[in-house]
């Protein structure tokens, strides 16, 4: 493990990730998804957030602010992060094994409901979400495996699943749809995210980047 890398429940998050098609992506923070079951805290996944360091140019309005200011309700920070036209990536490490169809089903219902609530769920969005679910259906997600979600632009989403921590040389899934791409990123680390710890850690990382 190199200096500056992070490890969460055996999932390694390097300080930078270099994809063949992208400039280096900088680690900005990590969190977990978890649930208390009969008084026992069960961790499901660890999520690392990466982005091109150029994102600081698009977030300069948030300089000299506290992380709590960024994550305040309706602050506009999450939208600025998601809409910034620079590459972003999530590395999702599986702590507690799950079937791909279960993960895809949760993703489908959550993204669909959010899009429908904002009246943005049309045939095009439905088709892209169905393709994502079909891709995940065939995947096994045992402990230690990783899902990589990559946004080359705010309009495009690429996905790859690795049986371990290996960075993908190419992505198996690709789709272009701004609504699905942006809402998917919001679901993980935006306002009312599935992982509040990820949102909070990302805000701290952005504050440090802008310092």
From TrEMBL:
It comes from Marchantia paleacea (Liverwort). Keywords: Isomerase. Belongs to the chalcone isomerase family. PANTHER family: CHALCONE--FLAVANONE ISOMERASE 3-RELATED, CHALCONE--FLAVONONE ISOMERASE 3-RELATED. Residues 8-206 form the Chalcone isomerase domain. One of its GO terms (molecular function) is intramolecular lyase activity. SUPFAM superfamilies: Chalcone isomerase (SSF54626). The keyword Amino-acid biosynthesis does not apply. This is Chalcone-flavonone isomerase family protein.
């Amino acid at each position: 493990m190199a200096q500056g890398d992070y490890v969460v429940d055996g999932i390694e998050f390097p300080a930078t990730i270099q994809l063949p098609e992208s400039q280096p992506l900088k680690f900005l923070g990590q969190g977990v998804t978890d649930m208390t079951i009969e008084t026992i805290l069960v961790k499901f996944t660890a999520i690392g957030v990466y982005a091109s360091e150029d994102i600081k140019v698009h977030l300069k309005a948030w300089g000299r602010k506290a992380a709590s200011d960024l994550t305040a309700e309706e602050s506009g920070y999450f939208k600025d992060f998601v809409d910034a036209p620079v590459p972003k990536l999530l590395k999702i490490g599986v702590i507690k094994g799950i079937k791909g169809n279960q993960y895809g089903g949760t993703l489908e219902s959550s993204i669909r409901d959010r899009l429908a609530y904002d009246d943005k769920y049309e045939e095009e969005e439905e088709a892209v979400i169905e393709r994502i679910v079909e891709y995940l259906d065939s995947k096994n997600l045992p402990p230690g495996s990783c899902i990589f979600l990559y946004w080359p632009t705010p309009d495009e989403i690429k996905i790859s699943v690795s049986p371990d921590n290996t960075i993908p040389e190419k992505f198996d899934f690709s789709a272009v749809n701004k609504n699905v791409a942006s809402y998917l990123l919001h679901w993980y680390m935006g306002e009312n995210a599935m992982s509040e710890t990820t949102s909070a850690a990302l805000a701290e990382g952005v504050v440090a980047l802008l310092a």
